[in-house]
Input
Amino acid sequence: MDNMDIKDKQDTSVEESTEIHPTEIRPPTLFLPHDVFLVVEGSQLHICKQVLAEKSPVFEQMFQSEFKEKDLTEIPLPGKKLKDMVEFLRSFYDPETIRPITDDTVFTILPLAEEYQVSKVKERCVHFITQTLQKAIINEIQRPDLHTLLKYISCAELYNLSSVLPLAIIMCAKYTIKSLTETSLQTPVSGETHVKICTERTKLTETLTKERIEKGNNNL
Output
C-alpha cells in the first residue's frame, strides 16, 4: 500500500508476521501526510486520519468527535490481527494500489468492512460472492465446497446480504442432506435457512427424478 507504512515496535520483522513482501508495504510516501498510528498486535500501521475518515464513518466519528482517540497519535485496535487489518486497508485506502476481493480475502475483509462501515468495500465483497455463486449455478466455474457455501450463508444472515442468501441456498441444495447436516455442525446456519435448503433439495430431487422417468419413457 503506497501510502501506508508499517512499523514494528518489538524489533521483529513485519514481513515475518504478515507474510507480505516488504516492497509492498514500505514504498516511498510522497503525497499523503501520516498523522496517526493504528497499533495492531504490537505493530504500527502509519496512516492518514483524513483518508480513513473519508472512507469510514466509524473512523470519522473517532477522529472528529469527543472520543479519546481524537487527539491520540497511537490508536490501539485490540483483538484485531495485523495481517487482516493490512488486507482490509489495502482494499480501499490507496486508490492507486487497491487489491481485488478474492476467495482468500473475502471472509477477512467483509467483517471489517461491516464493522468500520466502509460501504464500498462491503459492496465489492457482496458483488464478488454473488458473482461467484451465479457463475457456479450456470456451471461456468467449479461449484464451491459446502463449507464455503455455508460461510456465505452465515455472512448473508449476519450482514443482511439479500442477494447472496437465495443463491447460496440453491447451491447448497446440490449437496446431500447428510453432508449438509454434518458440515453445518462446523458452520451453523439458522433453522429457517436449513429448512429452505432442504425444501430446495427436495424440489431438485423431484425434478431430476421426473427427468429420468421422462427420458426412460422416450427410450422405450
Q: What stands out?
A: The chain has two domains: 1-99, 101-220. Residues 101-220 form one domain. The chain has eleven helices and four strands.
